[in-house]
Structure formats: C-alpha cells, structure tokens
Amino acid sequence: MISLKDLVPAAQNNVNAQFIVLDKGKTTAEGQNKACLSLVADETAAVHFQLWGDECDAVEPSDIIRLTNGIFSYSRNNLVLRAGKRGKIEKVGEFNMVFVETPNMSEIRWVPDTIDSKKYVKESVLSPYSRIFPPNN
C-alpha cells in the first residue's frame, strides 16, 4: 500500500492505497458514462479521486475504500487518482479512519524532471487544500 503523500503523477500506474471518502461532487454525464469527482484522504495527504459509472452511485462520503492497480495522472487538466480500466475499488469499511486534508496532492503543480523527462517533480503548491472541496470554516 502506498501513502497518498507519496503519489507522483504519470510514474504510477499500479497504485494500491486505502483511504476515506471525505466529500463527493455531483454526477455528470461523460459521453455514455457517468463521472463524479470526490475528495479522499489517508493519514498522510488528500487527493481528488475520479469515480466512473456505477462507482458514482456506490461510493459515499465516510466510506473507506481500497484501491488496487489505480492510476495517478492528469484527466482533462486535473490531476486525479482513479481506478482506470485495470484497477478496482472495494469498500472495506466506514467512518473510522485517521486522515488529514493537507497537503492535497491534486493541488501541487508537477513538472517534468530536468534529468529524466519520464519523471515528475513538485514545482509549487497551488493550494494547501482542495479548491474544489474547500474546508468548512
């Protein structure tokens, strides 16, 4: 299992992680499929998690999800974690999980490494928390 704080875009196409769903956006139509964005977190960081099709109806805030063979990459200019075609998600519990909301790994600007263009490095933090799901103050 990887900690969310250790995610790096494009370099990881087999992410195995466990996290809690903190918030979920409204479901939209993406061609023939449904899609919705959610905010998930573990004890190290938060990230935006893309849900597709039946996942949109099956996953709710407070669900604890285990992701197997997921992908952390750009989708429509947004950096998201998702199951993809090869991955799968499984609900493994509810409510009881330690988590943090910062840093949000989707709110970091990543750039290609100058030494190895296949790798990405952190350039700057766009926002310390999710701009899509801002914290309640």
TrEMBL record:
<dbReference type="InterPro" id="IPR051231">
    <property type="entry name" value="SOSS-B"/>
</dbReference>
<protein>
    <submittedName>
        <fullName>SOSS complex subunit B homolog</fullName>
    </submittedName>
</protein>
<dbReference type="GO" id="GO:0070876">
    <property type="term" value="C:SOSS complex"/>
</dbReference>
<dbReference type="GO" id="GO:0000724">
    <property type="term" value="P:double-strand break repair via homologous recombination"/>
</dbReference>
<keyword id="KW-0238">DNA-binding</keyword>
<dbReference type="GO" id="GO:0005694">
    <property type="term" value="C:chromosome"/>
</dbReference>
<dbReference type="GO" id="GO:0044818">
    <property type="term" value="P:mitotic G2/M transition checkpoint"/>
</dbReference>
<dbReference type="GO" id="GO:0003677">
    <property type="term" value="F:DNA binding"/>
</dbReference>
<dbReference type="GO" id="GO:0010212">
    <property type="term" value="P:response to ionizing radiation"/>
</dbReference>
<dbReference type="InterPro" id="IPR012340">
    <property type="entry name" value="NA-bd_OB-fold"/>
</dbReference>
